[in-house]
Amino acid sequence: MSTEINNRTALLHNQRNVPESTPQRPTMESGGTTGALLYAVVAAVLGMLQFGFNTGVINAPKQFIENFIKEQYDASPDLIFGVIVSIFAVGGMIGCPLASWVADKRGRKFALQANAIFGVIGALLMGFSKMASSVEMLIIGRFLIGINCGFATTASPTYVSEVSPLKLRGAFGTVNQLAVAFGLVGAQILGIDVILGSNDGWPLLLGLAVFLSAIQCVMLPFAPESPRYVLLVQRNEEQARALLAKIRGTGNIDDEINEMHEEDRAAKQEEKFSIGDLFRIKALRTPLIIGIVMHLSQQLGGINAVLYYSSTIFENAGLTVENARLATIGVGSILFVMALVSIPLMDRLGRRTLQLWGLGGMALASVLMTIAFYTYKDNFTMSIFAVIFTLFYVAFFGVGPSSIPWIILSELFGQGARSAAVSVGAAVNWFANFIVGLVFIPMTNLLGNLVFLPFTILLIFFYVFVYFKLPETKNKTIEEVTAVFKK
């Protein structure tokens, strides 16, 4: 799930933002958790909560939205609903690079504020689409909220990483991931039939996203700009010092300011590579292919088919509509728990190990899911097992494939090529997300209970590829990793 976001990538950009040959001197970290820091983090992370909410919110009201489509058009409601689901990813593909450009040109805070406005407009269009009898408003609203969420997955982690002190950067970075999972669970809970999962309630359910963006619009004007941006881009050291002192709650900021200057000097000495260079130079092309396949494994393994359509999947497995929606809450809850579990495992077991465990477990679970789907008729026990195996599938996704693809490109490339490589990975991820969202329902109609078989085959391919091609990056410097591809 693109979901898993660029928080770790932003963290690595700043922690590893010096050339590999330049030793980093010990620093005296200024400050700790302060009210100003917490306020800034909360204001930014609401965008990631929005991303999780809009990933999960479309699942439960599928039946009612399709009824609404039937009232407006004679065309297949499955096809149009697929467009409504997948247009979110098209917006995400636009929002990601747009965020980088706006944040560099106008500042991190301005970028977050502008993005919140996109969220308000998109949510209002979705919320009033039924009242206006306009499927087009619903599609445009999902597109704009997709831009908002794609934008947030770049802008929010970058801002949080830059305002956080080094010793807390990892902890605050994980808040982004947890916010996505929490938003997903919240959307699934609100989508049950006794709350807003009804024919009258679904426009309000989708429109609730307006509150998250509106709160951001209110909070962000009072949040500080990133001191790193003010110092290194705007070249205003006096203002940067004032902002940093306020965020840290102390005037002891000289070491941190000096460290920013050192990173800036080091970055200027690093050779820069374009996206075209990544494809032309073999030493860069090989890790790029690995990174692209890693991102494809996240999406084409079928996880967003579950996140977007789990209610439909569970209904097809023999559950009632009400029970299917309750089971869907379990999907988001498992992702939230695994977000917590995977954090300490990442550096203990290594990226390659966790990715293999995740892909292998997903492949096995998808086989078991297919067996349960195929044998559930007149067998309620197999319907229950279908849910259990689906939750295992989601749990294994949370072990590694949920976050490692976002990390790995930052660890396979030196600083000069890292930004271009991460941009390619994000574009591939969102595009694959779009494809899965668009084709899953037609695939279900074509393959029936064997719908996860193509995902199983792809998961096996991704497992074999990772086993033979992905080097372990745990406890290795960038020089050590990139040397592997230069041989």
Automatic annotation (TrEMBL):
PROSITE patterns: MFS, SUGAR_TRANSPORT_1, SUGAR_TRANSPORT_2. GO terms for molecular function: fructose transmembrane transporter activity. GO terms for biological process: fructose import across plasma membrane. It is a multi-pass membrane protein. SUPFAM superfamilies: MFS general substrate transporter. Residues 40-474 form the Major facilitator superfamily (MFS) profile domain. The chain crosses the membrane at residues 36-59, 79-103, 110-128, 140-160, 172-196, 202-223, 288-309, 324-344, 356-376, 382-408, 420-441, 447-468. Residues 1-30 are annotated as: Disordered. It is found in: Cell membrane. It holds the Pfam family Sugar_tr. Belongs to the major facilitator superfamily. Sugar transporter (TC 2.A.1.1) family. This is Solute carrier family 2, facilitated glucose transporter member 3.
